[in-house]
Amino acid sequence: MSPWAGPAAVVAVLVAAVLHASWNAVVKGSGDQIGIFGRSSLVGVVMCAAGLWFVEMPAGGSWPWLIASVVIHVGYNLGLLAAYRLGDFNQTYPLARGLGPVVVAVVAALALHEPLAPVPAVGVLVIAAAIGVLGLTPWRRVRANRPAVLAALFTGLTIASYTLVDGVGVRASGSAAGYTLWLVGLECAATVVLVGALRTRRGAGVPILAAGGRAWLAAAAVTVMSTMAYGLVLWAQTRGALAAVAALRESSVVVAAVIGMLAFKEPMGRVRVAASVAVAIGVALLAVPAA
Q1: Angle made by CA atoms 248, 253, 161, in degrees to the nearest 5
Q2: Each residue of 241-251: pLDDT tens digit?
Q3: What is the pTM of this model?
Q4: Contact yes or no for 130/271 (Cβ under 8 A)
Q5: Would 291 be classed as within a structural domain?
Q6: Count of structural domains, the chain
Q7: Beta bridge partners of 4
Q8: Cα dist from 243 to 38, 99, 163, 277, 283, whole Å
Q9: What single string gives the DSSP state of each residue in 30-72?
């Protein structure tokens, strides 16, 4: 049988992939990553607080997973900030995203008793390998910027961790929408505190509340896109195998590679084009049902 309950879950994850690459590009291009994280988090707290009136409360059994995910997401935000400060968008983004699918596939098979059929499993490996190529080429750029690579790999481990935690948590919640809003709201509240601490330590940058209208518009766009993207992924995790969802979500690296080339004038090259095609092939393999 297919690792997906239906085509709607596949479409949801592909839309999430586009949204995810887009909001990451907005953060990278902002010139003030800490500031935009702080402003988008403030918007997120308000948005989620308003939305909680319209969704069901997650079931009690999901709360330990939800709280653990909030902590992991804060680590993810720190890793992402460091990676974007130190490296190029189309290098650090693929590296951060590429580690997750393999880790999720292995843990889901061994600990959650959710193995993939052979063909979709090959799809996961193809996607992960292609993403690795996107992040590790050209090699001279990797050798010249090891701190960015390490930050991206740390970010990848946090991605794998929260994917697994939320996969269990959202299934136990009884309400994907409620789980999403509580998760995003609490994460945003924690990130506001984190950004305040970073601003105080560095003593630099435009104060969060003093930013102009364009900065707040960009922050609102990040909040809406990131919340929609992860909400779609969480919903898909109730309809598909965790490894398949994690791998398909990382098709966002192809979008990120194009954005990096067009918006940030970062190099692409034949090898990276071939790797992007390989990601598409891996995505197609994920949809092949078992015999």
Answers
A1: 60
A2: 888 888 888 78
A3: 0.82
A4: no
A5: no
A6: 1
A7: 240
A8: 31, 12, 9, 20, 12
A9: TS-HHHHHHHHHHHHHHHHHHHGGGSPPPPGGGHHHHHHHHHH
